[in-house]
Amino acid sequence: MSGLTYEAVATFAQQGGTIYFGLIFAGGLTYALWPRHKEAFKRLAQLPLEDDEIDHV
Length: 57
Hints:
By secondary structure, the chain is mainly alpha-helical. It has helices at residues 6-33, 38-46.
């Protein structure tokens, strides 16, 4: 029988998924906190507070 059991594959998938999503999270966090993007995020944060010219019904 092969060395690949259900438990081995499940463990590999869990660990691989954790590492994958951890890297995706770290990349998103790095992008969001990068100093070059600070002004854009400040402007976008104030967008919901601005008055609209058109009334939305």
